[in-house]
Amino acid sequence: MNIEIDNGSGFCFGVTRAINKAEEELSKGSKLYCLGDIVHNGKECDRLRKLGLITINHDEFATLKSAKVLLRAHGEPPTTYTQAQTNAIEVIDATCPVVLHLQERIKKEYSEVDSSNKQIVIFGKKGHAEVMGLVGQTNGKAIVIESPEEVDKLDFNKDICLYSQTTKSLDDFRKIVEYIKQHISPSATFRYYDTICRQVANRMPHIRDFASRHDVILFVCGKKSSNGRVLYEECKSVNPNSYLIDSATEIDFTWLENCHSIGICGATSTPKWLMEECAKRIQKEGE
Ligand code: SF4
């Protein structure tokens, strides 16, 4: 049986950078907290927890004083930085530079004069950490739409300025743009910025090709991974024998009956070692 691990899958630049920062701090022996899961992958979080990383939520963060806290690649709203300053928290800022740049653009957009007649719209997942960080740049005023189906809730008589969460689908973003173009009132303006990260978008054609070359695809990612969901759906669209698992123990061997080639791939939050563990389990059971 042929097993191939996709060499285009695995941590993106932003996640690698955040994990390196955490490891660097932990190697100094410092007590380090991380605000939220450092990566949407439970197995990698467990590995870092064993190295000493303490994951906390926003309520716990609010009660911390004089501690060192890492902000993950997704970024945080301005309120988090204010709170850190008030409580003498040393921030290790691992916000991905791509997200940071997007936050700055949205902040500038919001601070421009005459924002009263303008709708700042973010195509993204409600409640997602990155989206909360983006909405925070507008004092909570930005409108979040999760899918092309939600575009109708916008007011087409008012100006629209559209951005996207970095990990959303490029196809859906284009659908939203087309719909708004067709419905916007002649008296209003529409500007849009494709802010989708190519670390994810560029994986689409690659993963489609990879998925079509194998009998069965095992897509390894944490259940909370947003880009994982998008990439998995892409695999499924070209190969119906695609299965989403978060670890080697979830492999159901009935999926692999009569199959000759298995492709193992994952999201930008999937560690390489986890995909390797899946390959090892198949090899072992196969023997
Ligand atoms: S997907 Fe892109 S924007 Fe998001 S953390 Fe990775 S590199 Fe940064």
Quaternary state, please? Answer: single chain
Sequence stretches where pLDDT stays below 50 over 5 or more residues = none
CATH class of the largest domain: Alpha Beta
Question: How widely separated are the two ends?
Answer: 11 Å
List the helices and strands in order. Answer: EHEHEHEHEHEHEEHEHHEHEEH
Strand arrangement, major sheet: 1-12-10-11
Can you give the helix content as a percent range?
40-55%
CATH topology of the largest domain: Cobalt-precorrin-4 Transmethylase, domain 1
Major β-sheet profile: 4 strands, parallel
Shape descriptor? flat
CATH architecture of the largest domain: 3-Layer(aba) Sandwich
Q: How many H/I helical runs?
A: 11
What would your notes on this structure say?
The chain has eleven helices and twelve strands. The longest helix has 15 residues, at 13-27. The termini are close together. It has three domains: 2-9 and 200-286, Cobalt-precorrin-4 Transmethylase, domain 1; 13-96, Rossmann fold; 98-198, 3-Layer(aba) Sandwich (Cobalt-precorrin-4 Transmethylase, domain 1), CATH 3.40.1010. A four-stranded parallel β-sheet has the order 1-12-10-11, sandwiched between helices. Strands 3-2-4-5 form a four-stranded parallel β-sheet, with helices on both faces. It has a four-stranded parallel β-sheet with strand order 7-6-8-9, sandwiched between helices. Helix 5 (97-111) packs parallel to helix 6 and helix 9 (203-212) crosses helix 10. With 287 residues, the chain is an alpha/beta fold. Iron/sulfur cluster binds at residues 12-15, 73, 96, 98-99, 166-167, 197, 199-200, 268.
